[in-house]
Write a structure and sequence with these properties.
Blueprint: E1 8-13, H1 21-34, E2 38-42, H2 46-50, E3 54-57, H3 84-97, E4 101-106, H4 108-119, E5 124-128, H5 144-165, E6 168-173, H6 180-189, E7 193-195, H7 203-216, E8 222-227, H8 233-244, E9 248-252, H9 264-282, E10 288-293, E11 296-301, H10 302-307, H11 315-323
Parallel strand pairs: 1-2, 1-4, 4-5, 5-10, 6-8, 6-9, 7-8
Antiparallel strand pairs: 2-3, 10-11
Helix pairs in contact: 1-9, 5-6, 6-11, 7-8
The protein binds 6-O-phosphono-beta-D-fructofuranose.
C-alpha cells in the first residue's frame, strides 16, 4: 500500500482498562491529525463499533488526558462481537464512516478481535494495554508500572498495621493467569513468600514452615503475596492461621490496581506505542501488534504475536526466598 493511502482511522480501547490508555489515545489522535488523517474515537470497545457509537476526534478532544487513568473512550468486553454477524456489523459501521483501519488498544482478547475485524476488511494495528503484562510479543504493556506502584503503596500501608499486631498479611494482587505483578511486588516489599501460577507452592512446606522457622529467628510479622491466578487470599489466610497459629488477614487489592494517574513509564510507553501505530498505518503496514523489546519498538503479525509464549523470570522468586528471612 502506498504511503498516506489510509486517510481515516478509528481508535478504541477494549478489555480491562489500564492507566496510560489515555496517553496512547492522545498519541494516536494527534499523530494521525499531524499526517492529515481523520480520526474517529469508538466508545466502549468493540460494542461501539456494533452500536455505531463513534465520534470524530480533534486536537482538543484529547487535551488534558495524558495524566488521567481510565480511558476517555470507555472500554468493554463484547460477547456480541465474537459472532460473525457482530463482526460484519462492526465492519459495516466502519465503512459507513469511511474508517479504513483501526487502532486497537487492549490485551490478547482484543487482538483476537482485531484479527476478526481484519477478516472483514478493516485492517488493524494493536497496542498492548493491560496491567497484567501478559502479552508475549512485548516486554511491557501499558498500565503495568502504575498498577505495580499502586500495589506497592497499598502493601506498604498494610505492613504498618501487620507489624503493630504481629500478624501475617496475605495480599492478593491482580495479574489474570500470570504472576508478573505478584513476583515484582513480592520482591519490592520483601514478602516472606510470593505465590504465582507459574510455580505452584505447598502451603505447609513452603509457607507455614518458613513462617515458623523465621519466627524462631525473631521475625514477628509476615507478608505473603499471592497472584489472583494462583489462589485466593481469603482461603490461604485461613489455612495459614490454622496451620501456623499466627493471626492472618487477607486483603484483595482488586480494581484499585487499575486506577490512578499513569507513571512516567506508562505515559512514555503509551505515547510511543500510539505514535508508532500511526506511523505503521501511514506506511500501509497493518495487522501488527506493537511492542517493546529491550526498550526498542518492535511489531509482529497479529497471528505470530498471539502464538508467542512468555515466561515469568522465576529468579525473582529465588532472590526473594534467599533475602526474606
Ligand atoms: O486484565 C486486567 C484485569 O484487571 C486482570 O488482572 C483481572 O483478572 C481482570 O482484568 C478483572 O476483570 P474485570 O474488570 O472484568 O473484573
Amino acid at each position: 500500500m502506498a504511503e498516506q493511502e489510509i486517510r481515516k482511522i478509528g481508535v478504541l480501547t477494549s478489555g480491562g482498562d489500564a492507566p496510560g490508555m489515555n496517553a496512547a489515545i492522545r498519541a494516536v489522535v494527534r499523530s494521525a491529525l499531524s499526517k492529515n488523517m481523520k480520526v474517529y474515537g469508538v466508545h466502549h470497545g468493540y460494542n461501539g463499533l456494533l452500536e455505531d457509537d463513534i465520534e470524530e476526534m480533534h486536537i482538543r478532544s484529547v487535551s488534558e488526558i495524558i495524566h488521567r487513568g481510565g480511558t476517555v473512550l470507555y472500554t468493554a468486553r463484547s460477547p456480541e462481537f465474537l459472532t460473525l454477524q457482530g463482526q460484519q456489523t462492526a465492519a459495516a459501521n466502519c465503512r459507513k464512516h469511511g474508517i479504513e483501519a483501526m487502532v486497537i488498544i487492549g490485551g490478547d482478547g482484543s487482538f483476537r478481535g482485531a484479527k476478526d475485524l481484519s477478516a472483514q476488511e478493516v485492517p488493524c494495528v494493536c497496542i498492548p494495554g493491560t496491567i497484567d503484562n501478559d502479552i508475549a510479543c512485548t516486554d511491557y504493556t501499558i498500565g503495568y508500572d502504575t498498577a505495580m506502584n499502586t500495589a506497592l503503596e497499598m502493601v506498604d500501608k498494610l505492613r504498618d498495621t501487620m507489624l503493630s499486631h504481629d500478624r501475617c498479611s496475605v495480599v492478593e494482587v491482580m495479574g489474570h493467569r500470570a504472576g508478573y505483578i505478584a513476583a515484582n511486588i513480592g520482591l519490592a516489599v520483601g514478602a516472606l513468600v510470593t505465590v504465582v501460577p507459574e510455580k505452584p507452592l505447598d502451603v505447609d512446606k513452603d509457607i507455614v514452615s518458613k513462617m515458623k522457622f523465621t519466627k524462631k529467628m525473631g521475625k514477628k510479622h509476615f507478608i505473603i503475596i499471592v497472584a489472583e491466578g494462583a489462589g485466593s487470599a481469603e482461603q490461604m489466610a485461613k489455612e495459614i492461621e490454622e496451620k501456623s497459629g499466627i493471626e492472618a488477614r487477607p486483603t484483595v487489592l482488586g480494581h484499585v490496581q487499575r486506577g490512578g494517574a499513569p507513571t512516567v513509564r506508562d505515559r512514555v510507553a503509551a505515547t510511543r506505542f500510539g505514535y508508532q501505530a500511526v506511523e505503521l498505518l501511514s506506511k500501509g503496514i497493518t495487522d501488527r501488534v506493537i511492542g517493546l523489546r529491550a526498550d526498542d519498538l518492535v511489531d509482529f503479525d497479529i497471528d505470530e504475536a498471539l502464538s508467542m509464549k512468555k515466561s515469568l523470570d522465576l529468579s525473582l522468586l529465588d532472590i526473594n526466598a534467599t533475602l526474606s528471612v
